Amino acid sequence: AADGTLSLPAAPGKVPGLAGLREMLVTRGLQPELEFLYAVYEDRETGIHRIYYHGQVNGPVPEGMVMIPLDILPWDRIAITAERSMLHRYQQEFRHGAFSIYQGDEISGKVRQISGD
Description:
Layout: H1 18-27, E1 31-43, E2 48-58, H2 81-96, E3 100-105, E4 109-113
Parallel strand pairs: 1-3
Antiparallel strand pairs: 1-2, 3-4
């Protein structure tokens, strides 16, 4: 954002959901591979529900976006509390190579391990 805060790419308001997220990323010149649902948050801070997907993108970094390695994420610049919490969990799961799905809010919820089978 213009104020230096960071957030993950989001589907535009006109086309919310997975299809909108893919379309936005492709429009920006990226090739997304969104593999599975990663987290569903009820963000009590904003009153908005957020859905995050596990995936990756390939392509040049578009203007207005940055790619930051997980091990040096600037936590104080991630403005949304729920997103910061989810990224902490993702960082830990990435290190261990075992991912889960989260359902809850920015404070508490349920985590279910994804089987490799």
